[in-house]
Design a protein that fits this description.
alpha/beta; TIM Barrel; seven-stranded parallel β-sheet; two-stranded antiparallel ribbon; 15 helices
Length: 346
């Protein structure tokens, strides 16, 4: 198995910069679309063999350096007693959004084996079959809370911000429940075979440094402290977080994922001692590949062959992306960053 990704996460020398893509399994791949013609997302996650197959599709087609298990960030919520429905074109919808202390009080304790047993079995299958390391993942408490309070995806998270400022004790109680669930969820993924875990905080960029430091960072520190004994790299990724990076660096995560709104070199200076992941604008892949190549080389130049860089997009692969361009990008990163003898070859 190639250990290129894990070596980079540990800030060790590598023979070439590793690369994988958020949302690499699905969306842009024709083989995934063929699966989705037969079954929905929730059905894929409940079928261990199919979930593993979908997770491996981009490894085979694109030559990426990691396989991330296919799931949704809301996947564990039904195991806490939350009714989640997937609506085409909308995404996950929460049937009964959280509004009161009683709503938080009835959230159950997550039992991963009972709640997401097929997903854990998919990770076991992936670990046996994947030629590259397997990444497990979960939604961050703030982002999960945004779905639970808003009821669905919300760009401004107005309801959640009103809860944070108007009822901070209730907000904190909700995040405490979600931290507990996220820790046991990721622990179960590591026990099943995940070799690294990533926490997605897709909506946390709506916060400024004051609110993040006061209302979110203490919960993130508790989360990563809970994962510290697992012995695997931990990645924290958020969007719109350029102004939060110094604070995120103190969360306990060992790798920080960057979106495309800050130069990689500038961001890395804010993250001493940590590995970084990123950070090509995913919309570039909807245009000519020459522009993709130009910015890719620029990002690699900013990394300057320092140990600890994993190439990724600044957010997920967009559905209209040409898979052939993703493969070209993988090859370009490997070729332009090749350092023979620097690390074990795949």
């Amino acid at each position: 198995m190639s250990d290129r990704l894990l070596r980079a996460f540990h800030r060790e020398p590598v023979d070439a910069t590793p690369i994988w893509f958020m949302r690499q399994a699905g969306r842009a791949l024709p083989e995934y679309r063929a699966v989705r013609e037969r079954v929905g997302l929730a059905e894929i996650v409940r079928d261990a063999a199919l979930c593993a197959e979908v997770s491996l599709q981009p490894v085979r087609r694109l030559g990426v350096d990691a396989a991330i298990v296919f799931a949704d960030i809301t996947t564990p919520l039904p195991g806490m007693g939350v009714d989640v429905r997937f609506v085409e074109g909308v995404g996950p919808v929460i049937e009964r959004p959280i509004r009161t202390p009683a709503d938080v009080a009835v959230l159950g304790t997550l039992d991963p084996d009972a709640a997401v047993g097929p997903l854990l079995e998919a990770i076991r299958l992936l670990r046996r079959e994947s030629p590259v390391p397997v990444i497990g993942f979960a939604g961050a408490p703030f982002t999960l809370a945004s779905y639970l309070v808003e009821g669905r995806s919300s760009r401004d998270t107005a309801g959640l911000l009103a809860l944070l400022r108007g009822a901070p004790e209730l907000f904190s109680a909700l995040l405490e429940r979600l931290v507990d669930a996220t820790v046991v969820y990721l622990e179960a993924q590591v026990r099943a075979g995940a070799q690294a875990v990533q926490v997605f905080d897709s909506w946390v960029g709506v916060l400024g440094p004051f609110d993040y430091a006061r209302h979110v960072l203490p919960h993130m520190r508790r989360l990563f402290a809970g994962l510290a004994g697992l012995g695997v790299p931990t990645v924290l990724f958020g969007t719109g977080t350029a102004g939060l990076l110094r604070l995120m660096a103190t969360s306990g995560a060992r790798v920080i994922g960057l979106d495309w709104r800050i130069a990689l070199g500038e961001a890395w200076e804010l993250l001493p001692g940590l590995a970084v992941q990123g950070n090509l604008d995913p919309s570039l892949l909807l245009g000519p590949f020459e522009a993709v190549a130009e910015q890719t080389v620029w990002i690699l130049e900013q990394a300057a062959e320092r140990p600890g860089h994993v190439f990724n997009l600044g957010h997920g692969v967009l559905p209209a992306t040409d898979p052939d361009d993703l493969r070209r990008l993988v090859d370009l990163v490997h070729e332009r960053s090749a350092r023979p003898g620097a690390g074990r070859a795949p």
